[in-house]
């Protein structure tokens, strides 16, 4: 039985010295040109496989006979030493409990938050409050990334508690404090080292300091969001606790304990907060670089006779297309969280995939492949607009080739949640302001290959100027 082709590397170490951990997606794009849409390499004897084609991803993770096995997670430092006993959704193997929680969380983000109205109404109020603050900063340089980061933390505090939070609240401080060590510890480089050598979390140095800081912030997060008194009868934490009560009333075992709820809360950092913060950073960089896009957005907004509401997204196809193109152009998570066939060897496409092979979906490579997207390095919302002016349907090639949130049962929770938040941010701010470059600072290039590295890439730091629309 043969394995997929790929770079051979040096004995024992394999590709350990050739793979830039901070820019794996760019290396994978180069290797894809040489070895094809599915290739394999080794590091220290361990197999890694990379897939760079949307159809192969769907077959691998959704329709092939071994799809369930390929949807498991690799052993990692995060699910053993940070998430208690893998009691979460993101890092847990794909078992019944994981799927139950995944479906509950998906329903909460995709349906409940829309149907109950309170959430997007509160988000709208938060953005309008931001408009008032920006009006005091007209013609002054503004740290737009910092402003958006704070806005997202407020929105996620609202998601968790059902209440609006302020920058001076303990909830805000707890979330903001947890994000920093969690993001740093979870980088590919640090996570890989700690997975191989978990004892380093106890050895004085950078990794121990990060781990200790994360543990302290994790305890604070638990105290604030699980043991605090600020919860109301809505929000993600309430939903999960209510689900636990319902299971008990139905005569089943309520296995959703506080560790599971805490695991889901911590999942939101890499799965929701960081992606939304970072894609908003790219959004404003794109808008400053493309004043013509701003003009088209404002032109479409003139069709509304009232203030923007979340239901208006269907009436504004160009703005909807701008958001879709932003997600393609940026691809905030350039390489997906790793899958792993932990249960044993498996055959796929006439290749043998050895047990414990870690599988990367090269989402960035797919979204910047000329086979799937014409002129992929340009920001072109028009690619998502049909000839009649409407947004293209789900069967259109550009929609079928979009895999920003992954495919199959591991598809990201809340895949449309971020789109709705971005829709409100774009429409409300563009209705009130024009964005211009800062004359005192050269604007960073709008090239996704040059964005700041990380698990979730972001725009380089920059400042812009707001002017009245």
Strand and helix layout:
Elements lengths: L23 H12 L2 E6 L2 E6 L2 H10 L3 H4 L6 H6 L13 H20 L2 H18 L5 E2 L1 H18 L8 H16 L2 H9 L9 H20 L10 H14 L8 H32 L1 H11 L15 H14 L8 E2 L5 E3 L2 E3 L4 E4 L1 H5 L29 H4 L16 H16 E5 L26 E5 L1
Parallel strand pairs: 2-7
Antiparallel strand pairs: 1-2, 3-9, 4-7, 5-6, 8-9
Helix pairs in contact: 6-7, 6-17, 7-8, 7-12, 8-10, 8-12, 12-14, 14-17
Structure overview:
This protein has 469 residues and is of the alpha+beta class. 49% of the residues lie in helices and 8% in strands. The protein is built from 17 helices and 9 strands. Strands 1-2-7-4 form a 4-stranded mixed sheet. β1 (38-43) and β2 form a beta hairpin. The radius of gyration is 22 Å and the shape is globular. The model has no long low-confidence stretch (mean pLDDT 92).
Mean pLDDT: 92
Determine Rg (CA atoms, Å). 22 Å
Which band does the percent of strand residues land in? Answer: 5-15%
Structural class: alpha+beta
SSE pattern, N- to C-terminal: HEEHHHHHEHHHHHHHHEEEEHHHEE
Task: Tell how many strands the DSSP assignment holds.
Answer: 9
Helix content: 40-55%
Low-confidence spans: pLDDT under 50, at least 5 residues?
none
Please outline the major beta sheet: 4 strands, mixed
Number of helices: 17
Distance between the termini: 64 Å
């Amino acid at each position: 039985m043969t394995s997929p082709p790929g770079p051979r590397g040096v004995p024992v170490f394999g590709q350990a010295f050739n793979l830039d951990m901070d820019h794996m997606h760019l290396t994978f794009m180069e290797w894809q040109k040489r070895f094809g849409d599915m290739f394999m390499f080794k590091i220290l004897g361990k197999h890694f496989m990379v897939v760079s084609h949307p159809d192969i991803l769907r077959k691998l993770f959704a329709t092939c006979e071994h799809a369930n096995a390929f949807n498991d997670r690799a052993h990692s430092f995060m699910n053993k030493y940070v998430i208690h006993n893998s009691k979460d959704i993101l890092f847990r193997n794909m078992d019944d409990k994981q799927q139950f929680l995944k479906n509950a969380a998906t329903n909460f983000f995709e349906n409940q938050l829309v149907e109950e109205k309170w959430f997007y109404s509160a988000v709208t109020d938060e953005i309008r409050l931001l408009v008032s603050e920006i009006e005091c900063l007209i013609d002054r340089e503004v740290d737009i990334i910092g402003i958006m980061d704070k806005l997202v933390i407020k929105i996620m505090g609202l998601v968790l508690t059902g209440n609006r939070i302020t920058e001076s609240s303990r909830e805000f401080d707890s979330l903001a404090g947890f994000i920093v060590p969690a993001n740093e510890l979870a980088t590919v480089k640090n996570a890989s080292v700690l997975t191989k050598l978990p004892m380093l979390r106890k050895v004085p140095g950078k990794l121990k300091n990060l781990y200790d800081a994360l543990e302290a912030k994790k305890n604070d997060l638990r105290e604030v969001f699980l043991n605090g008194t600020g919860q109301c009868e809505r929000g993600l934490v309430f939903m999960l606790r209510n689900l636990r009560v319902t299971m008990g009333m139905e005569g089943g075992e309520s296995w959703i304990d506080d560790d599971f709820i805490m695991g889901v809360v911590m999942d939101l950092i890499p799965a929701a907060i960081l992606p939304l913060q970072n894609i908003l950073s790219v959004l404003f960089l794109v808008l400053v670089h493309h004043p013509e896009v701003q003009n088209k957005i404002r032109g479409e907004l003139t069709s509304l006779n009232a203030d923007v509401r979340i239901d208006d997204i269907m009436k504004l196809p160009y703005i909807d297309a701008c958001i879709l193109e932003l997600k393609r152009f940026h691809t905030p998570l350039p390489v997906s969280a790793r899958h792993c066939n932990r249960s044993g060897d498996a055959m796929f496409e006439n290749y043998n995939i050895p047990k414990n092979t870690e599988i990367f979906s090269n989402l960035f490579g797919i979204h910047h492949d000329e086979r799937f997207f014409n002129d992929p390095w340009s920001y072109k919302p028009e690619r998502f607009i049909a000839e009649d002016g409407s947004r293209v349907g789900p069967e259109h090639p550009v929609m079928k080739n979009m895999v920003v949130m992954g495919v199959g049962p591991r598809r990201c929770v809340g895949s449309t949640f971020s789109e709705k938040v971005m829709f409100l941010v774009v429409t409300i701010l563009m209705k009130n302001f024009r964005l211009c470059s800062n004359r005192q600072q050269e604007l960073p290039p709008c090239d996704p290959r040059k964005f700041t590295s990380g698990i979730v890439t972001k725009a380089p730091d920059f400042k812009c100027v707001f002017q009245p629309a």
